[in-house]
Amino acid sequence: MQVKDLTIDELKLLIQETVAETIQSLLFDPDEGKQIKPEVQQQLLNSLQQTQAGERGISAEEVAKKLGLNW
Fold first, then answer.
1. HEC per residue, 6-70
2. Domains in the chain: boundaries
3. Which one of 7, 40, 58, 61 is at 20 to 30 Å from 21 when CA atoms are compared?
4. Is the pTM of this model over 0.85?
């Protein structure tokens, strides 16, 4: 069947289903259920604690410079 053969209601339903599938695929988390390595978890906790204590991390400009990117 071709699109030209669809009724307006069939076309609307097809579009709705396509949009719903697209949204679901964008919201899917491929890492769901996976475990974080203990050392990575500790690094994240340390970073969070430093941020909460008011410490600043590396600026985006500095990271870009280290990577040879023009900021």
1. CCHHHHHHHHHHHHHHHHHHHHCCCCCCCCCCHHHHHHHHHHHHHHHCCCCCCCHHHHHHHCCCC
2. 1-28
3. 7
4. no
